[in-house]
Amino acid sequence: MIYMSEPVEGVSPSKPHNLKAQLFSASRWMAQSCSNMMSGLGYQMLEAQDYALITVLDNGHITIEDLSRRLSWEIAQTNDKANHLETLGFIKIVRDAEKDNQKQIAFTDAGWQLINDLSNVVTQVELVLSQRIGISDVNNIRSIFSTNWGPSLKESDLFHNEQDLTGKGLNEHNDKLHSELDL
Q1: Ramachandran region, residue 18 (left: φ > 0; alpha: ψ -120 to 50; beta: rest)
Q2: Four-CA torsion 5, 87, 42, 142, nearest 10 degrees
Q3: Is the CB of residue 1 less than 8 Å from the CB of residue 49?
Q4: Count of CB atoms within 10 A of residue 169's CB?
Q5: Residue 161 pLDDT level (bands cut at 50, 70, 90)
């Protein structure tokens, strides 16, 4: 997830039909904006990956293994980042009471303050975004991302032999879809 630490300023917008690139760009913008503002509150020691880990911790009681899965990181990378946050005093890593071979992460008081500050910063970033693009567009984004998109697609969901379910060629179908999106 190194993409989150890449600079956003000066990057031209993605092509309009590449949703994945647009989602990454929006994520980078949000992450960089929050990181910049958090630095102003004294959290300049935190990196983009630290915020990614903090964001998926939920209430702060999760195993390193589960956290690694959520982040799609190697366990060693997750351990390194968790150890970094523990050294900074935001979390504590303890042996799981039920599974002695696993480590569990819990927030410290400083960690809970970090979460509170980050929550306030996210709210401020969303307010600025609402001013820039309009509250209705921000609400549309919220609505879209709170909709259940169903399970992730699998290899079996691919259109084989460039034929989709309607019998049209995949390229013909995509051309039609893109021309409808341009309206």
Answers
A1: beta
A2: 50
A3: yes
A4: 14
A5: low
CA distance 50 to 108: 15
For residues 78 and 71, the answer to whether their CB atoms sit within 8 Å is yes
pTM (whole model) above 0.85 = no
Is residue 62 within 8 Å of residue 79, measured between CB atoms?
no
Tokens encoding 128? 């600025």
> ∠ CA 117-84-8 to the nearest 5 degrees?
60
Tens digits of per-residue pLDDT, 16-42?
568 888 888 898 999 999 999 999 999
How is residue 150 written in tokens?
Answer: 């169903």
CA dihedral 165, 168, 174, 175 (to 10 degrees): -160
- In this model, does residue 13 exceed pLDDT 50? yes
Strand order in 62-63's β-sheet? 62-63, 103-107, 91-95
pLDDT at 177 over 80: no
154: number of CA atoms within 13 Å, CB side? 2
How far is the C-alpha of 162 from the C-alpha of 169, rounded, in Å?
5
Which tokens in the block code for residue 96? 């799981």
